[in-house]
Amino acid sequence: MSVPNTPAGSDSPAVALGPTSLVLGAFSALGAWVPPLAFLTLPLATIAGALAVTFGAAGIHCARRGVGGRLWTATAGTVLGATGLTGTLTLLWAFGA
Asked: Helices 17-33 and 35-65: crossing angle, nearest 10°?
């Protein structure tokens, strides 16, 4: 017996916004606040932080409207992304780049 690979009718792409934001936010926060990683991943951590905030805000919006999505993961990803983005921008400002 084969299982169909098609998504259910209730699945929405908005379901992936929260976990994506959480992963990007965690990368950004670690890349900004762990000193050995900060110098290696500074440009990528900045981009990941901005994307985490963007995807997290969209995930929060979709979860509150009931379209689909996970509110807590989107919120956590937004907070981690903002923390990482603030850290990387502070490092860039401090080094005068």
From this structure: 160
